[in-house]
Amino acid sequence: FKPEPTFGSISFRTGKDDSGNWVTRVPDEAGIDMSLMRLGQERYDIHCSVCHGTLGNGRGVTSQFGLLPRNLTDPSQAATFLKVPTDGEIFHAITNGSASQIMLGLGDKLSPKERWAIVLYVRALQSYVGKAAQAEKGKDS
Questions:
Q1: How many whole angstroms separate alpha carbon 32 and alpha carbon 21?
Q2: pLDDT value at residue 116
Q3: Is residue 106 scored above 60 in pLDDT?
Q4: Of the chain's two ends, which shows fewer C-beta atoms within 10 Å, N or C?
Q5: Cα-Cα-Cα-Cα dihedral of 128, 30, 83, 108, to 10°?
Q6: What H or E segment, with its residue span, contains residue 84?
Q7: Are 58 and 122 in contact (CB under 8 A)?
Q8: Please, are residues 55 and 73 in contact by the beta-carbon 8 Å criterion?
Q9: What is the three-class DSSP state of 119?
Q10: Is the distance from CB of 22 to CB of 28 less than 8 angstroms?
């Protein structure tokens, strides 16, 4: 008996459901737990932070050379803040890149699980950095 390999659901592989709509949340199939969050942080630090910055605010090393990567986390920087409503769209951008942002896709370098882990980590950064930015803005008022 040779088991058939499984590659995950359409949602897990593409970020879209069977009807072609973006999924709103990281699929349960990704195995959402703290180890996935740690994997997301590790992969984000390796593949994303150079451009997007450690906190996801678009202030990575490349910003010092005139590249203006998207701010993923700080809503106080409204002009560049990532306004993506679904996790599926973030997954898609990680997979395929973004022509408007000169971002190369990582679909050939990261497994779907690793890409979903980055989505989960970016969402955690958005929550943390977003709240911190709002608190700072409140102090200035």
A1: 21
A2: 98
A3: yes
A4: N
A5: 120
A6: none
A7: no
A8: yes
A9: helix
A10: no
